[in-house]
Specification:
mainly beta; about 5% helix; 2 helices; seven-stranded parallel β-sheet; four-stranded parallel β-sheet
C-alpha cells in the first residue's frame, strides 16, 4: 500500500479524495491542503504534519498519537474511532478566521493537549479525555457528551455555555475558569464544588 506521502505525491491541494496511506514515526508531511478528503485506517503515530490544512475532512480510525502539528489548521473536521494519545493539538496555527468547529466521536484522546485553542462549538462524543489539558482553551458552547474527563485540567478555560451534562469524573475550579451558562448534571456539580472543599450529602 502506498504511504500517505506517496498518495499526496508532491501536490499542494487535494479535494474530495480517499487517502489510506500511513506514515512512519518521524516522517514529515508538509505544505498540503486537504479539502473534503477522507483519511481512513491510517497509522500516523509519531509523524509530523507541518503547515497542513485539513478542511471539512473525515478521519476514520486514524492513529494520531504523538503526532506533531506545527502550523497546521484543522477546520470543521470529523474524527471517528481514532486514537490521539499524548498529542499536542496546541501547536496548531491560529488562522485569521476562527475555524469551523470539529467533532470527535469515540476517540481515545488521553493526555492530549488542547491548551489555548479555540474549540468553540466543538463536539466530543463518547471520547476518553483522561488527563487532557484544556488550560486557557475556549470551549464556549462546546459539548462533551458521555466523555471521561478524569484528571483533565481546565485552568483559565472559557466554558461559557458549554454542555457537560453527560460528561463524568471532572473537577473544575470555577474560581479559575469562566463558567457562566455552563450546563452540568447533579453529579457534575459535585466536581465544581470539590475545589472549595464542599461536601454534599
Amino acid at each position: 500500500m502506498p504511504t500517505l506521502a506517496e498518495q499526496v505525491d508532491g501536490r499542494t491541494s487535494i479535494v474530495d479524495e480517499v487517502l489510506t496511506g500511513s506514515m512512519e514515526e518521524g516522517e514529515v508531511l508538509s505544505g498540503v491542503e486537504l479539502v473534503g478528503c477522507t483519511l481512513r485506517d491510517a497509522q500516523l503515530a509519531g509523524a509530523t504534519l507541518a503547515g497542513v490544512r485539513l478542511e471539512g475532512c473525515a478521519l476514520e480510525r486514524v492513529d494520531l498519537s504523538r503526532v506533531r502539528l506545527p502550523d497546521t489548521v484543522v477546520d470543521g473536521c470529523t474524527f471517528t474511532g481514532g486514537k490521539a494519545l499524548a498529542t499536542s493539538w496546541s501547536m496548531q496555527r491560529s488562522p485569521v478566521l476562527a475555524p469551523d468547529p470539529s467533532t470527535w466521536v469515540e476517540c481515545q484522546l488521553a493526555m492530549g493537549s488542547f491548551g489555548g485553542l479555540d474549540l468553540s462549538g466543538a463536539r466530543f462524543e463518547r471520547c476518553v479525555l483522561t488527563d487532557a489539558d484544556f488550560d486557557e482553551a475556549v470551549l464556549r458552547e462546546a459539548v462533551l457528551d458521555d466523555c471521561s474527563l478524569a484528571g483533565a485540567r481546565f485552568v483559565r478555560a472559557d466554558l461559557r455555555d458549554a454542555d457537560l451534562r453527560t460528561a463524568r469524573d471532572y473537577v473544575i475550579d470555577v474560581g479559575d475558569a469562566r463558567v457562566a451558562g455552563l450546563r452540568v448534571d447533579a453529579v457534575g456539580a459535585l466536581g465544581l464544588l470539590a475545589p472549595f472543599g464542599v461536601v454534599v450529602g
